[in-house]
Amino acid sequence: MKNLLKVLAVFLITAGASTFVKAADTEASTQDIRQACKYNSTAKVNPDFKTLNCLLTETALAYDVPPEIVKAVAEGESKDWRQFDTNGNAIVTGDNGIGIMQITNQSQYNEQQLKDDIVYNIQAGVETLDKMFKRTDLPTINNKERDVLENWYFAIMAYNGTKPVNSPIVQATGQPNSNAYQEKIKRLINEFELIKLADLPFKKEDFSYDSNSTNNIEFVTKNYSFNLPFTKSKYAFKVGQKVTATTAVNIRTSPSTDSAAKGKTSTGEVLTITGPFQYENKKNHFVWYPVKRSDGTTGYVASSYLKYRFTDIPAKHYAEDEIDYLVDRGILKGVGNDKFGVGQGLTRWQAVVLLTRANHVSLDNRPDPGFKDVPQNHPYYKEIAAAVDVNLFNGVSDTEFKPDKTLTRAEMAVVLQRLYQFPATTMKIPFTDVKENWYKDEVARLYASGITDGVTKSTFGPGNTVTREQFAVFLVRSMDKSYRLTR
Predict the structure, then answer these.
(1) Residue 104 in 3-state DSSP?
(2) Chain-centre distance of CA 389, in angstroms?
(3) Which of 218, 237, 263, 399 has its CA 20 to 30 A from that of 462?
(4) Counting Cβ atoms within 10 Å, is residue 293 exposed (0-12), middle (13-18) or buried (19+)?
(5) Cβ proximity of 366 and 382 under 8 Å
(6) Half-sphere exposure in the Cβ direction for 235 (13 Å, CA)
(7) Dihedral sign (CA 161, 166, 167, 171)
(8) Would strands 140-141 and 207-208 be described as parallel, antiparallel, or unpaired?
């Protein structure tokens, strides 16, 4: 760590808490990590890059912290991931930052062990990042999912200190602060992990501070909701899982940038993971996955260029782009077991969750809608209460919401119109099954705006169930059309 301010931040968040790993558990977990990385050396020398990559990655995964974050922080704190100098002494900076993660000694850590044991030092750094992510006084981003790299923005900032120097915005100019610690870490992720994180559109009004003061930044905005393509960690792909190549990339004969290429993927090509990731003895942060192409060709692809894919979405599926769009923004999730749920009817509670997420509807302090089938312990009570409160959804009666009932195309049209307010139209719609119904105007507006077609040229199918993939298409079209209409 680069300064004492960070130490104080860690002390304040951990003092009096019992959330640190107990000594016995710490020893057991460090032994597991040593074994996984085949690291048994007691010599005070820096391990090779392959071993260091493994130590950093395995420790990060043990704490459910994205390895991309941990490795970039280690790079920022100690160039080339160095724990020891050429004389075998632990590197200690002027502000008493120790070793690879630059941990300044605190009572819960053994100072000599921080100096002598690189695994212990890494673990202390990862614990600190984990604590920073769990802080309740820092702003949250979207749903604060741990595997989304952009969601760690403020935790990374706090690792170095929430002082004016690390403000995301330069108060005097209103411009992004490229010198902030967390921005430097983002650039290291781009350089060594080959992943470009989304630029977060903060505003000057989000932060308050005095540049001449040593006081912490005041976070005016507590929760951020961004419709941006965020990045999930690349370290959770399982054997047999389908992934997508994010660009045209070489398939290597072995897990190394020096190995021969045996073909090149196309952008969007579907690959199958055939084994656990592997490390390269080079100064790379990424890892290599063994993969198989549809023609049976096998090889290795860098993790940077692989993206999660649902196993039940076939290649070139008509809704593939829309599903990807919603998944990247944390709006849409699967039904479990790496499946999206193609062909499944969308339930009313699922529609509520999608729409409240897509439009950042606040779930706080909503009145109880009073539905007997949506008690307060219902897993999506808050979303349903919020949707009803803003008149996005109604119950099927005053006392029932029927959350598990599937949504019809007529209901879909009404809900999307309530939310996105498409303009009135005099266009004659061609649907013989949409006459003077309660949903006629909504269907006409969506049809004229290009959001929906009929199930045939002359029928809309108002009573038909909307499938999950159909709703993904309707929702993305609505979001895009609404955006263009309001510009």
Answers:
(1) strand
(2) 28
(3) 399
(4) middle
(5) yes
(6) 28
(7) positive
(8) unpaired
Q: At what angle do helices 468-486 and 348-358 cross, to 10 degrees?
A: 30
Name the phi and psi angles at 408, rounded to 5: -90, 165
Render pLDDT for 352-385 as a digit per residue (tens, 0 to 9).
Answer: 999 998 888 989 899 999 999 999 999 999 999 9
Amino acid, single-letter form, for residue 56: L
Mean pLDDT along residues 4-9: 36
Residues in the chain: 487
DSSP string of 298-326?
EEEEEGGGEEE--TTS-TT-TTHHHHHHH
Shortest CA distance to 125 belongs to which of 154, 90, 155, 101?
101
Sign of the dihedral defined by the CA atoms of residues 346, 349, 354, 356, in that order: positive
Give the span between the Cα atoms of 386 and 401, in whole angstroms: 13
Joined tokens for residue 483:
């955006």
C-beta separation of 208 from 224 below 8 A: no
Domains of the chain, residue spans:
1-232, 242-308, 320-486
Burial class of residue 201, CB neighbours in 10 A (0-12, 13-18, 19+)? exposed
Average the pLDDT over 99-117 and give the result. Answer: 91
- Read off the pTM: 0.84
pLDDT > 70: what percent of the chain?
93
Query: Using CA atoms, how far apart are residues 65 and 130, in angstroms rounded to an integer?
Result: 7
Convert the pLDDT of each residue in 421-440 to its tens digit: 999 999 999 999 998 889 99
Q: Find where tokens 């760690």 sit.
A: 152
Q: At residue 346, what is the residue type?
A: L
- Considering the segment(s) 1-232 as one domain, its CATH architecture is Orthogonal Bundle (1.10)
For residues 380 and 346, the answer to whether their CB atoms sit within 8 Å is: no
Please give the class, per CATH, of domain 242-308: mainly beta
